[in-house]
Amino acid sequence: MLTLKPITKDNWEDAIELKVKEDQKHFMASNLYSIAEVQFLDQFQASGIYEGEKMVGFAMYGIDPDDNNYWIYRLMVDEAHQGKGLGTEAVKLIVNEIRMINTAGIPLIMIGYNQDNAGARATYIKAGFVETEVAPWGEQLAAYRLNKNIK
Hints:
The chain has 151 residues and is of the alpha+beta class. The protein has one domain: Aminopeptidase (3-Layer(aba) Sandwich), CATH 3.40.630. Helix content is 26%, strand content 32%. The protein has helices spanning 12-17, 31-38, 86-101, 118-126, and strands at 2-6, 44-51, 54-63, 70-77, 108-113, 130-134, 140-145. Strands 1-2-3-4-5-7-6 form a seven-stranded mixed beta sheet. Strand 6 and strand 7 form a beta hairpin. The protein is globular. The chain starts with a strand and ends in a 6-residue tail after the last strand. The relative contact order is 0.15.
């Protein structure tokens, strides 16, 4: 079972040691960059994805000030732990975390990913995201409705 733990002074170095496969590196920013970036995003948090006591992945998510929706800006699973369904499980864990902290009633969680990233597409669709449109910056966008009754 996976859990989320905030990135802190005690585990940030574990987070930056996580790596994706060589052919996936161009799909996302490094965890080091993300940990730096989150310092300047007021409503975002960075979390380690843990299997037991071992960090196996990294995520960054929060409320984007441009559209006031939740966004998952980063999600990665270390190359040694890929192919086990942990990505889908991690997305569902983040969705549940957002449900718990969503006191403002925000209806959507959004995500964007490279159109060539078949692994990301499969993971997000399996977790309940629905592809919407291609963003002006070229990423495929997908949405998860927190309240299924709202269109």
